[in-house]
């Protein structure tokens, strides 16, 4: 199969998703990507993969490398990669039962799925692909579509605790998209772990996009619920050191997103100091900037590149 574009779309609602920023990102991608000179795309904080799917749909890249510390998320990517049809079948079955039920029965169905998902957790070996992964991936995708706000949140015991969300007609399965994603994942390596594990993948003609958990602007915007592990300032510094080390390699294009501390404190030069010598661009995002989910507003965010745009 020759190199071609893959018109797959994100399949998960994921906190910090970048879909809304893609139009602004087009101008910030490296020229080498637009000219067809990039062989590898690496995304070490992949989450819902909005940028991964955008790059795969618009440019010809030979291979893709994804990493995320969230084991449940990586499990879903692996299942789509290996057994898309079994996953679609399970989702179609769940969707038929859910959508045909009364409001009260939908609610009990949701909580029964959530209970089974949580009860199975201690028995899952996230290292070795197994038959039970298909059911687990189906449960996670189903809950992502039917839970309140579509968030993925684990409590301190690692349990999924998001309540039922009252949606009229949620799209629980998009079979065509799952098949397209699976085709794209045939040329993709996916690992679970810390972002530094991507280093061996970063060779000449590689584009790396980093989208770490954002440094919080203030206490109420602090979002650390992707997994139980927090990503604090020490990790932001560790990431900047890693970025600088990769930037020393020839033919490596690096792009990184983060919050802009000057939204709250004009004198906060945390990222300006960490990424001194690199290009720092400003984009505008609509984010929840308050504890009240109905209050959204425009905030500035940073995009740092080791190349000029
Ligand atoms: C801002 S989200 C990425 C959102 C993604 N770009 C999208 O469009 O959906 C950050 C991701 O980093 C992951 N993460 C947190 N700490 C990590 C670490 N040390 N190494 C790798 N991934 C990490 C989280 O699980 C989460 O999926």
Describe the overall structure.
- This protein is α/β, with parallel strands linked by helices.
- It folds into two domains: 19-69 and 193-305, Rossmann fold (3-Layer(aba) Sandwich), CATH 3.40.50.150; 74-176, Adenine-specific Methyltransferase, domain 2 (Orthogonal Bundle).
- Helix content is 35%, strand content 16%.
- It contains ten helices and seven strands.
- Strands 3-2-1-4-5-7-6 form a seven-stranded mixed sheet, with helices on both faces.
- Helix 6 crosses helix 7 (132-146).
- The protein is globular.
- The two termini are 32 Å apart.
- The relative contact order is 0.16.
- Mean pLDDT is 91; it is low at 221-228.
- The site of S-adenosylmethionine (SAM) has 23 residues, from helix 3 and strand 2.
Task: Label the structural class.
Answer: alpha/beta
* Low-confidence blocks of residues: 221-228
Number of strands: 7
**How much beta, percentage-wise?**
15-25%
- Provide the CATH superfamily of the largest domain: Vaccinia Virus protein VP39
Features:
alpha/beta, single chain, Adenine-specific Methyltransferase, domain 2, binds S-adenosylmethionine, 7 strands, Rossmann fold
List the helices and strands and how they pair.
Blueprint: H1 22-25, H2 31-34, E1 40-43, H3 50-58, E2 63-68, H4 71-82, H5 84-99, H6 103-120, H7 132-146, H8 175-185, E3 188-192, E4 206-210, H9 233-247, E5 252-259, H10 270-274, E6 279-288, E7 296-305
Parallel strand pairs: 1-2, 1-4, 2-3, 4-5
Antiparallel strand pairs: 5-7, 6-7
Residues 14, 16-18, 44-45, 47-51, 67-70, 194-195, 211-213, 226-227, 231 line the site of S-adenosylmethionine.
């Amino acid at each position: 199969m020759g190199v071609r574009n893959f018109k797959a779309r994100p399949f998960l609602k994921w906190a910090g998703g970048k879909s809304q920023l893609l139009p602004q990102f087009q101008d910030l991608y490296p020229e080498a990507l637009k000219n067809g000179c990039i062989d590898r795309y690496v995304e070490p904080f992949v989450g819902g993969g909005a940028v991964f799917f955008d790059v795969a749909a618009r440019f010809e890249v030979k291979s893709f490398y994804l990493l995320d510390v969230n084991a449940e998320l990586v499990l879903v990517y692996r299942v789509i990669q290996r057994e898309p049809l079994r996953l679609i079948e399970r989702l179609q079955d769940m969707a038929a039962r859910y959508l045909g039920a009364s409001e009260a029965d939908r609610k009990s169905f949701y909580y029964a799925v959530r209970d089974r998902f949580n009860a199975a957790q201690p028995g899952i070996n996230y290292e070795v692909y197994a038959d039970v992964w298909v059911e687990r991936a189906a449960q996670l995708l189903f809950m992502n579509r039917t839970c309140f706000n579509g968030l993925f949140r684990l409590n301190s015991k690692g349990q999924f605790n998001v309540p039922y969300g009252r949606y009229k007609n949620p799209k629980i399965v998009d079979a065509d998209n799952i098949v397209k994603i699976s085709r794209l994942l045939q040329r993709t390596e996916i690992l679970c772990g810390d972002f530094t594990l991507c280093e061996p993948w970063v060779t000449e003609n590689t584009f790396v996009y980093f989208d770490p958990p954002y440094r919080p602007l203030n206490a109420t915007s602090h979002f650390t619920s992707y997994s139980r592990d927090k990503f604090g300032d020490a990790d932001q510094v560790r990431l900047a050191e890693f970025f600088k080390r990769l930037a020393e390699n020839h033919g490596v294009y690096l792009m990184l997103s983060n919050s802009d501390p000057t939204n709250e404190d004009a004198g906060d030069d945390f990222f300006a100091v960490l990424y001194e010598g690199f290009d720092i661009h400003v984009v505008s995002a609509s984010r929840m900037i308050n504890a009240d989910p109905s209050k959204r507003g425009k905030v500035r965010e940073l995009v740092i590149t080791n190349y000029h745009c």
